[in-house]
Design goal:
By secondary structure, the protein is mostly helical. It has one domain. It has seven helices and no strands. The longest helix has 45 residues. The protein is elongated and about 80 Å long. The model has no long low-confidence stretch (mean pLDDT 81). Keywords: Membrane, Transmembrane, Transmembrane helix.
Length: 177
């Protein structure tokens, strides 16, 4: 299976969201009238949206929300905060699944919101799988290094208590990796 690092996947998501915000801010019709959009909302029988950007302040608020999501992820990538992504991606998946289900079941919103939820679900699944694979690899590397250190301690002829005391905190932190 083709695999991309979670960092690249998150950068792709952020760049995609920034491009969507740019096009929606510049001219919403360019996004709404795309053939892909037409096929999706006709196939799912979701009402087509008509956007009047000058009168719809909630539209601008939604653009601000999407921009903040991408900007927050850029900042967290800059500081290499893996714990943030390990915790937020499953939450986003649940929220966007719930929102997409609600929109599709009750036909309460338009196609643009549903398609945004659908694309977020797709990106977050991709990111989630990459994060889980990277976490598994980090744990395996830690296990190998701890195993090598324990073997080295056992084969030496000196007192092991001090070295083992340094090694135990590493073993306790495996849930943080």
């Amino acid at each position: 299976m083709f695999s991309v690092s979670s960092t690249v996947a998150i950068y792709l998501r952020c760049c995609f969201l920034l491009a969507v915000v740019f096009y929606l801010f510049r001219d919403p019709k360019t996004v709404v009238d795309q053939p892909f959009m037409l096929v999706v909302y006709q196939a799912l029988e979701i009402p087509h949206c008509e956007i009047n950007r000058e009168l719809d302040e909630t539209f601008n608020l939604g653009l601000f929300f999407i921009f903040n999501l991408s900007f927050t992820d850029f900042v967290q990538l800059a500081v290499r905060n893996n714990v943030y992504f390990d915790s937020i991606v499953p939450v986003r998946l649940v929220l966007f699944f719930g929102l997409a289900f609600w929109i599709y079941s009750y036909k309460t919103a338009n196609d643009l919101i549903f398609l945004y939820c659908f694309i977020e679900i797709w990106f977050n699944f991709f990111i989630y799988n990459s994060l889980k694979q990277e976490r598994y690899e980090r744990i395996k590397r830690l296990e190998k290094s701890v195993e090598a250190k324990l073997l080295e301690i056992q084969q030496s002829n000196k007192d092991h208590s001090e070295e083992l005391q340094k090694l135990f905190p590493k073993l306790e932190r495996t849930n943080d990796i």
